[in-house]
C-alpha cells in the first residue's frame, strides 16, 4: 500500500513502487540536486532504469507529488553475491521538500512494504560514520550492526558539507526477512567475537569453531571490483582451493598497482577450512571487519586491509553494540599490524 503524506492544503505526496513512466522524473530529480555528477549513472538513463527494475536488479521507491513531479527516490539494488540480498540506498529528496518527513516515510516503505513484497532474504545498508543520522535511520527500520568497513570513503566526498576530517568508515547494518538454520565456521580467535555479533540477531546461524581442515578441491575463483573514486578494491572469493595463495597474490598485486588504499575480502563462512584462509590473510595485514548475513546464500566474513593508519578517531557511532564492534575491529587491526615486520 502506498504511503500518503498531505504536506500542504493543495499538495499530496504518494510514496509507492517505481513505475516505468517515473523514469524521466527520476533523472530530473537527480539533475536538480547533483547535475550530471551523481556516481550511479543508472538514474540518468530512463531505458536502463526501467530494464533494471524489470529484472529486479534495482527496485526503486519514489515520492510522487500531486503536482506531477518526482520529489524523492530510494532504491533496493543488488550489490552482494547473493541474488536475494539487496542493498538499500541512493536516497534523495528534492531540496524544497526536505522538511516533510518524506525520507523517513520512503525508508519505512521500502523496509516494511517493498522488501517483503519482492521476496528478499535480507536488506543491508552502509551507514556512514562521520555522523550518526543514517545509522539511527537504519536502526529505526529494524537493521542490526554486523560489520564495520574501515576507511571506506575518502574525505573529499564530504567536502561540501565539511563533515569529515579523514577517510570515512561505514557501519554495515542488516535487516533479515527470512530466517535460515545454518552453520557458520568461526576462525581461531574469532569465535566469541562472532557469537557476540549474532547475539540477538534473527539469522538462524549456529557458530562452530573452524577446524584445521584442508581447503576444497575446486580451483580458486576470485572476482575483483575497483572503485577508483574511493580507492577501494573489493574481492569476492567464490571458491577457495589449494591454489588460493597464488591466485590471491595476483589479485592483490593488481589492486595495489591501481593505487587502492582499502582492500576488502569477502569469504564464505560455510567453509570448514576458512580458518586457513583468515590465518594467511592476517599474515598479509588483513583484519576482521565483521559478518555479512546471507552474503553468499550462506553468511560471509569481511576481512579488510588499509594502506595507511585508519581514521579511528573520526568514527562516530550511535549504539553500544556498534561501539563494541569498533573495539573488536580496532583490536584485531592492532594485533595484525603488530605482527607484520
Name the features:
341 residues, alpha+beta, Aminopeptidase, 2 domains, eight-stranded mixed beta sheet, 8 helices
Description of the molecule:
The chain is α+β, with helices and mostly antiparallel strands and 341 residues long. It has two domains: 3-120, Gcn5-related N-acetyltransferase (GNAT) (Aminopeptidase); 182-311, Aminopeptidase (3-Layer(aba) Sandwich), CATH 3.40.630. Helices cover 28% and strands 32% of the residues. The chain contains eight helices and 15 strands. The chain has helices at residues 23-34, 46-54, 102-117, 133-140, 191-198, 244-257, 274-283, 320-338, and strands at 3-8, 11-17, 58-65, 70-77, 85-93, 122-128, 144-153, 168-176, 182-186, 205-209, 221-227, 232-239, 262-268, 287-292, 300-306. Strands 1-2-3-4-5-6-8-7 form an eight-stranded mixed β-sheet, with helices on both faces. β14 and β15 (300-306) form a beta hairpin. α1 packs across α2.
Amino acid at each position: 500500500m502506498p504511503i500518503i503524506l498531505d504536506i500542504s492544503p493543495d499538495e499530496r505526496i504518494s510514496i509507492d513502487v517505481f513505475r516505468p513512466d517515473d523514469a524521466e522524473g527520476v533523472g530530473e530529480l537527480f539533475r536538480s540536486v547533483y547535475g550530471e555528477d551523481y556516481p550511479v549513472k543508472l538514474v540518468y538513463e530512463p531505458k536502463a532504469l526501467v530494464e533494471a527494475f524489470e529484472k529486479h536488479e534495482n527496485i526503486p521507491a519514489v515520492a510522487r507529488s500531486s503536482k506531477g513531479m518526482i520529489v524523492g527516490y530510494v532504491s533496493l539494488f543488488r550489490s552482494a553475491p547473493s541474488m536475494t540480498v539487496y542493498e538499500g540506498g541512493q536516497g534523495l529528496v528534492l531540496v524544497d521538500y526536505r522538511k516533510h518527513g518524506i525520507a523517513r516515510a520512503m525508508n519505512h516503505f521500502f523496509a516494511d512494504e517493498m522488501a517483503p513484497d519482492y521476496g528478499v532474504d535480507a536488506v543491508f545498508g552502509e551507514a556512514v560514520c562521520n555522523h550518526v543520522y543514517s545509522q539511527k535511520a537504519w536502526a529505526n527500520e529494524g537493521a542490526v550492526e554486523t560489520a564495520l568497513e574501515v576507511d571506506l570513503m575518502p574525505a573529499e566526498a564530504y567536502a561540501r558539507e565539511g563533515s569529515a576530517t579523514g577517510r570515512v568508515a561505514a557501519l554495515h547494518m542488516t535487516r533479515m526477512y527470512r530466517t535460515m538454520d545454518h552453520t557458520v565456521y568461526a576462525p581461531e580467535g574469532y569465535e566469541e567475537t562472532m557469537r557476540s555479533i549474532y547475539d540477538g540477531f534473527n539469522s538462524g546461524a549456529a557458530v562452530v569453531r573452524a577446524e584445521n581442515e584442508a581447503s576444497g578441491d575446486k580451483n580458486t575463483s576470485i572476482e575483483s571490483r575497483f572503485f577508483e573514486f574511493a580507492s577501494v578494491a573489493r574481492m569476492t572469493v567464490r571458491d577457495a582451493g589449494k591454489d588460493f595463495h597464488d591466485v590471491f597474490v595476483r589479485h592483490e598485486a593488481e589492486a595495489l598497482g591501481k593505487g587502492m588504499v582499502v582492500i576488502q575480502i569477502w569469504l564464505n563462512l560455510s567453509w570448514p577450512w576458512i580458518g586457513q584462509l583468515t590465518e594467511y590473510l592476517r599474515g598479509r595485514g588483513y583484519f576482521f571487519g565483521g559478518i555479512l548475513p546471507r552474503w553468499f546464500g550462506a553468511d560471509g566474513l569481511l576481512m579488510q586491509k588499509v594502506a595507511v593508519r585508519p581514521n579511528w578517531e573520526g568514527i562516530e557511532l550511535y549504539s553500544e553494540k556498534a561501539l563494541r564492534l569498533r573495539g573488536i575491529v580496532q583490536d584485531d587491526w592492532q594485533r595484525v599490524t603488530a605482527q607484520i615486520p
